[in-house]
Amino acid sequence: MQRHARSFLLLLSLTAFWGTVARAQPDTMKAVRFHAYGGAELLKIEDVPRPTPAAGELLVRVIAAGVNPVDAKVRQGTFKQPGATLPLIPGYDISGIVEAAGAKATKFKKGDSVYAYLSLTRGGAYAEYAIVPEKDAAPKPKNLTHAEAAAVPLAALTAWQALVEKAKLESGQAALIHGGSGGVGSFAVQIAKARGAKVVATASTRNQEFLRELGVDQPINYRATKFEEVVSDIDVVLDTVGSDTLTRSYDIVKKGGIIVSIVDQPAKEELEKRSIRGAVFLVQPNGEQLAAIGQLIEAGQVKSSLTHTFPMAEVGRAHEAIASGHTRGKLVLRIAEEPAP
Description:
Blueprint: H1 2-24, E1 28-33, E2 44-49, E3 57-67, H2 69-76, E4 93-101, E5 113-117, E6 129-133, E7 137-139, H3 146-150, H4 153-166, E8 174-178, H5 183-194, E9 198-203, H6 208-214, E10 218-221, E11 234-239, H7 244-247, E12 253-261, H8 268-274, E13 277-280, H9 287-298, E14 306-311, H10 315-323, E15 330-334
């Protein structure tokens, strides 16, 4: 009888011990990672520890993650994520639901729907959970699904910071958007129109109707027409293309105007020669600006540029598509099922 009692007590002790061990182990999540720089085939779905939010941070359950050209460049190693070590979880756009808030994070609570741009030094969007500094998050626009919302942050913030912060675009001015059918360009067109500007935009033959749908006043087929032969006196040029597109843009900008590029540094001597300004920049996370963009979306002045979604298992195919340089609008990974409305 005593032997049975001792066995029973031992079993209880072992059960308690292993229960404690199990609780001590970090929760895991599915995430896309790569362990070496190279092709899209290196992207693998793996079990990794679920992160914990620090002070001022949110843990977000990711429903969808945007796929951007920079994602492919980071994976290829042509653009190194600052301070990153391999293996790496790529991705910088998320839309999801707050799972937990760290100390001093008081703006959002568990269950809130948010979207955010994760900085190039952070990444981590291709995962079931991601950490977001609360100041970088904004309420998800109510009229968008999470997939549609995930297509917004990086591209729309780039367009906003280029046109509003750098160029100070005003109503009545003329703006030329190079690559108007792309991720950044499609948001730039809409933001420029929302600010009352006349918009000229370039795109390929197949995207001319898409430019018109976005509200472009003067669509230009760059395969058939040299933009510098049909436009002049432009107040603001946003260059998302670079190379000779930038150099050919100097002469169409009016005196006092500005060229903003997200790819190449405008030549100082060319700017000075024409009494125009120039700037190149990398987008920064900004929750307040993202909230302002969300207001434009809810007002119907800006639409999500989502054109295609991929399941998480097809992340390699998504990367191949974005790396081609010929996608229209934005691509998104579905990380989880959309919650019921």
